[in-house]
Amino acid sequence: MPDKKKKIALVVQRYGVEVNGGAEFHARILAEKLAQKYEVEILTSTAINHHGWENHYQPGESFINEIKVRRFPTFAENKRKTRAARRAIFKKKKYFKILKFLGIFKKADQLFNLSEVTEKNVDVWLLGQGPYVPDLVDFISANKESYDVFIFFTYLYYPTVVGMPLVAEKSIFIPTAHDEPILYTKPYENLFSVPKFIMYNTESEKQLVENNFRNITQNSEVAGVGISSFHGEKAQLPAEIIPNKYFIYIGRIESAKGCDLVIHHFLEFQKKYPKYREFKLVLVGKNHMKKNYRNSSIIFAGFVTEEEKHAYLTNALAMIMPSFYESLSMVTLEAMVEKKLVIVNGNCDVLKSHVQRSGVGKSYTTKEEFFQALQFYIEQSETEREIEAEIAQNYVLENYSWKSVLQKFDDAIEFVTKS
User: Fold this and answer.
1) Do 294 and 369 have their domain in common?
2) pLDDT tens digits, residue range 16-45?
3) pTM for the full predicted model
4) Start and end of every Glycosyl transferase family domain (predicted)?
5) What is the number of other CB atoms lying within 10 angstroms of the CB of residue 296?
6) Helix, strand, coil fractions of the chain, as percent rounded to 5
């Protein structure tokens, strides 16, 4: 009689083919790969958007690519209370400025512990940060014996911080941690000691956590995610998009990803170098920017299908990733495996590491370096571009194969279930 398949619950803040987010896409493709060997279920919210977490999908059970998805409704929290809690955990309450101006903050803090972050501050912050899905947490608590392993995605959100301690001895944690201010606040100070096993995306992420937190779970591995070349039928490009006459960004279009700054730099580049005005910047993904950019050099393609995304990608001159905070950046690796050169924000260690380790691509930390990178790839010969592109592809194929990644997850699942 064959062994019964191990049952895995993958807990993630949002899930769906339409969901636009790196960690969420990572969760979906990992789930689909693991489902070839294990019985996988998704535990998630009904939200499609992380701005406000409004209910979009119907709660209850459904199937996506033959995987069972259990959705739980989100509940909105008081925004005013959330803002106050945020100021508390960052130790930036409004009246602190006045006390500092008067020169009495330090003495007052010593006497009255003004900057102490309370458990109530933490609780209010987590509910507001969301997605607040109390029914999901209750389900984990009531059904923890029904699953062999729980895989939690993303350190930042309520389902992980509140749900993972309930099944700590059965948990694998994929933190997707970035070097960002919120990581170092009280809600997350003990989170890395909770899981049975931590699966990091990169060595940079592992070092970030180990250098900044105590009592970390020592059972860990660096797996990342498998990246494969696209084998589907590529879509037709819109008529106004001319191959090799544009740079591309793919992902959530928002200030937090550096999109406003890269647009500003690109427009300044064209002012400084008018001869390059024929080149465009195409942004693919859902637009969350508040400012409207009415300029013929900036094209917002919107949310597109996989076939359309790869058509845009393969015809671009290079891909730009301006984000300050990444734990892996799957889209950067996808570009490289498709033989696209990348221009990345050098202030992000993970992105900079991809460029340094591969030996190709450009990183920038200043506007001038960004200009130089654009100019370099515009002026590069076709032969030089092909040589670089081959190196980029080989880097991904050698370091991010599904065979290697899945073996590491097999070992982690075996460890969690046997120990």
Assistant:
1) yes
2) 988 877 889 899 999 999 999 999 999 999
3) 0.79
4) 244-388
5) 8
6) 45, 15, 40
